[in-house]
Hints:
By secondary structure, the protein is of the alpha/beta class. It folds into two domains: 2-206 and 399-420, Glycogen Phosphorylase B (Rossmann fold, 3-Layer(aba) Sandwich), CATH 3.40.50; 216-397, 3-Layer(aba) Sandwich (Rossmann fold). It is built from 16 helices and 14 strands. It has helices at 16-30, 85-98, 103-106, 120-132, 144-150, 159-173, 183-193, 216-226, 247-259, 274-284, 299-307, 328-335, 346-355, 366-378, 380-397, 400-420; strands at residues 2-6, 34-40, 61-64, 70-74, 111-116, 135-140, 177-180, 200-202, 232-237, 263-268, 291-294, 311-314, 340-343, 358-361. An eight-stranded mixed sheet has the order 3-4-2-1-5-6-7-8, sandwiched between helices. A six-stranded parallel sheet has the order 11-10-9-12-13-14, sandwiched between helices. The longest helix is centred in the C-terminal third of the chain and has 21 residues, at 400-420.
Amino acid sequence: MKVLILTQYYPPEVGAAPERLGYLAKHLARRGHQVKVLTGQPNYPHGEVYRGYKNPRWKVTGERDAHGIEILRTWVYLTRGHRSFSYRLVYFLSLAFSALLAWRRVGPVDVVLVETPPIFLSFTASLYAFLKRARKVVYFSDPWVSFATEWGYLKKGSLTTKLAFGLERQSLSRSDLIITPNPGMRAHSLEVHGLDPEKVKLVMNGVDVNFYRPDAAARERERRARGFEAKFVVVFGGTYQHQAGLDVLVRAAVKLRTTAPDVTFLLVGGGVDKPRIAELAREAGVLDHNFLMVDTMPATQARDLLNACDVGVNPLSPAAITNLTLSVKLLTYMGCGLPVLIADRKVQRDIVEAAGCGMTYPPGDDEALAEKVLWLRDHPQQRREMAERARRAAVERFSREQLAEELELLLVGLAVRRLTGQHVTLKSGEAING
């Protein structure tokens, strides 16, 4: 099977999408499929091209990684630290157009897989599928238009918002298959866009449990290096987004600074909301005291740092739309064997309660969050049991290897249908190589 993966984000960039698609590409290549990736020059999250890369206009650059995957990169508009929605919009549109420059180098394709948001790249994928006579698959990771409306980027009921919803609906309805990463997203796709249930499949988000795993040696080394030996560290590792609801961590840090000086909140990552959170923590007098912020780092370093922590936290905004959210960071915590403390939002609550690996609190309630942090600190045995259950659930239910195989079977079924015109349902172990 010949697969083209079209994506805004790809390694060496870090984050949920690069990790997910990078793993899938390697999985497919190991299984004997021919994989090409079409993406932009790496620049996320700071909007500056990574060292060792250039961003030439009207030119397609190519590289082949150690797994035999050909990675084609085209020009993107660089935001260079500008965080406004308009700059990001131009950034998204730039790849949607420049990616068309690579159509000759892409070669024959059976399946075009595109991750959205952003929605614009989905139309590029449609054109590629048409030109290559291939099947189009959308990995619908977030309800981007709904988020933009909820946070005020788009005005509810406006012509622009209606147009955006229409574009999102068109990008999905003109696909042969839509993959959703959690039950909430599948329900949203069916309810909001009226899609054919047979075309909308659920393949859960996952974690590479062979990479993200408990590591006692890394824990001891990192805690000693960072002065955490006598600290109880609550970690958030992910993207600073408005829907993340990170304000509650600042307020909880304020409450605990004098009453529980051993409790430290550690935030790892980058994103558009980071400057605001930093300023909020600075004004509250907790930044660089019991509220630490470190930049995005390579995955190996991030994994070691997670192991140095005691609890993984995933706050989300109280907005109803966050009930659809399953953050990869939650599964990453579980893979590393961390007990978790999460805002009570449906999708992630169902996972944590089923696994018995953590606690919930009402979203935005800093007092309840602080109380749960202290309970976890003061009950080490229960915390260890939660940690064990977290790791077990990650391995048994959310292993990225198993979930990549599920997605592979769906892609192969589409490729066979393209060649034969027949609907084929494959089971594990029946995937066709090549």
